[in-house]
């Protein structure tokens, strides 16, 4: 005797009222199980995907607010004297002396306002020059005399 025939016999032995109740229970449990096993996981996955999308949008907005990285400028040894002369004149600094050394180094003596000197040093760094050494004398009225060694390349 196979299991299917034993279930059919058992079903036939049940009173009609119990068979009807089991059929109604089966009709109720069928959609509930379909909902629980098929549709609800899909809704949860959709909800999770929406949350992931919102997080990605927030991250993209945060990244857009970050300052853009500027590429580091490269400076050749041949361009260094011209850069020093041009930028120091723009910063209202007077070059007292400029001595060229080998390997792209220049010893420089200059004077001017301290604020102008500090801004000029920042501008040099952004242009790709490196200050190897700096000697600074500042007067009480804000005038500065600087002796520095500048190298090409950052």
Automatic annotation (TrEMBL):
Its main location: membrane. It is a single-pass membrane protein. Pfam families: T2SSM. It is found in: Cell inner membrane. Keywords: Cell inner membrane, Cell membrane, Membrane, Protein transport, Transmembrane, Transmembrane helix, Transport. InterPro entries: T2SS_GspM (IPR007690), T2SS_M_periplasmic_sf (IPR023229). The keyword Membrane applies. Belongs to the GSP M family. This is General secretion pathway protein M. It comes from Pseudomonas solani.
């Amino acid at each position: 005797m196979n299991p299917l025939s034993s279930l059919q016999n058992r079903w036939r032995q049940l009173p009609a009222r119990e068979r009807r109740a089991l059929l109604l229970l089966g009709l109720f449990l069928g959609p509930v199980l379909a909902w629980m096993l098929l549709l609800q996981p899909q809704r949860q996955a959709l909800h999770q995907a929406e949350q992931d999308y919102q997080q990605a949008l927030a991250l993209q907005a945060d990244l857009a607010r970050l300052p853009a990285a500027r590429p580091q400028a490269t400076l050749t040894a041949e361009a260094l004297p011209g850069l020093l002369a041009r930028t120091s004149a723009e910063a209202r600094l007077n070059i007292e002396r400029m001595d060229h050394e080998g390997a792209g180094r220049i010893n420089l003596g200059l004077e001017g306002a301290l604020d102008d000197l500090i801004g000029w040093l920042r501008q040099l760094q952004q242009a790709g020059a490196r200050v190897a050494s700096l000697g600074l004398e500042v007067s009480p009225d804000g005038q500065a005399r600087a002796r520095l060694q500048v190298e090409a390349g950052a």
